[in-house]
Amino acid sequence: MGEGPADRPAANENELIRYRRAKLARLREGGKSPFSITSYRRTHLAAEVRESFDSLEGGTVRVAGRLMARRRHGKATFADLRDGSGTIQVLFRADQLGPEQYQSLGELDDGDIVGAEGEVMKTRTGEITVAAADVTLLAKALRPPPEKWHGLRDVELRYRRRYLDLVANEETRRVFEVRSRLIASIRRFLDERDFLEVETPMMQSIAGGALARPFVTHHNALDIDLYLRIATELHLKRLVVGGMERVYEIGRVFRNEGVSTQHNPEYTLLEAYQAYADYRDIMELTESMVARAAEEVLGAPKVTYQGRPVDFTPPWRRVELVQAVVEGAKVEPEELQSAEAARRACQRLGLPAEPEMHLSTMVNNIFEQFVQPTLIAPTFVTDYPTAISPLAKAHSDRPELAQRFEPFAGGMELGNAFSELNDPEEQRRRFEQQARSRAAGDEEAHPMDEDFLLSLEYGMPPTGGLGIGIDRLVMLFTDSTSIRDVILFPQMRPESGQPPSADQAGSDA
């Protein structure tokens, strides 16, 4: 076959690149440039050959994919060929290909894209194999594969060059197949319940619908600043006002915040709104939707996350926020009834307790630090303080608490939901309070949105709303510990000495 990188002593990458480019030059000089080939008609995928061996044995197939490894045995060479379905072994023999074509295989390297046509057989060791009678080089890889296909282990390189990660690590491909099937399952679930999928603006004049810091851009023609959306909520609720009683959107939202294992500045959010429903109805919707997605995608409503079982079978546990803090943080109920008492509790627990901190903020901080990591089984934490829930309807008998819940599983918050506030006067009062917080320096406080208030004055029916972070749900389904493992192109700091590219904007925490 001639000498290839698999046969030569180790060389640095630049030498291997020069060696591959020389091969390409020889091919072009001989009028055989692989990049001139426009298509290759496959008859079967690798997985289909393996799964249908009994019916295909002795027949001829055409397969194509990336050359992963070669093993020479005299005048025969075995190679692994990987396509989107998996890997199949291909056998190249001089007596089948002929001396000239067999010799030309010396121009192949690991990583090249090739097509092979031949008989389906089994080797003496029982390996299902395509014995090639013809081979075609479809595209030349000018760079050597990472770590000889034993797996791309450099974590940062995996994120920066996801295409290499997908080639080298079959598990990575599986993660993103799960992600795709999960989103498809959620869509089917909502569509079957007469929800209508819609699209709302990604650039907005007011960044509303959540408490978060937005990214700012500028529209030159209009000469105005616009914001990348931090949520889809306020536009979707405008649609409910307009009579679209069940709507949802699955799309990207953007929050100008740090990067961590559970946070990426750009992520995928499901938001759904159902008229004539409250947050209890949305709890039932949520647990049914997630359980069915697990059943459809993984084969069972159960996963194992970091060695611990997570069972999504409804009903999920329901617990009020204050009760969860009392149980999980070992504080007394009276310590959560006044700002001064909560401040002392925070000091005892080693948490920030500045004099200006609101009671609800301190209670939520205790919860996030000491309770959230313990919520492994799916749990709805309910009845958050109204002060930190500016878009949620309050309980009529406990106005200090909102009809709000957050779902948790695997120690992660998965989303946010509530009975939507539909009183325009109360919503204005909430916005005014948020405006005071913003004036005091809180960049994440909710801005005043006069058009949304106007829409509420036309009348919005009682409505339940839900937001679910798709990325964190995928983390649970795939036992991934970092959100970057489930986003194809996560935000990265530009490589040293390199200008930032469009997919590298942002920073690493």
The largest sheet is: 9 strands, mixed
Q: What is the count of helical runs?
A: 16
CATH superfamily name of the domain at 176-201 and 231-316 and 377-479? Bira Bifunctional Protein, Domain 2
Q: What is the radius of gyration?
A: 29 Å
Question: By helix and strand content, what is the structural category?
Answer: alpha+beta
What name does the CATH topology of the domain at 176-201 and 231-316 and 377-479 carry? BirA Bifunctional Protein, domain 2
Give the CATH level 1 class of the domain at 176-201 and 231-316 and 377-479.
Alpha Beta
Low-confidence stretches: 1-10, 499-509
The CATH architecture name of the domain at 176-201 and 231-316 and 377-479 reads 2-Layer Sandwich
Shape: elongated
Helix fraction, binned, reads 25-40%
Mean pLDDT score? 91
Oligomeric status of the shown chains?
single chain
E-strand count: 19
The fraction of residues assigned to DSSP E strands is 15-25%
State the separation between the terminal residues, measured CA to CA.
49 Å
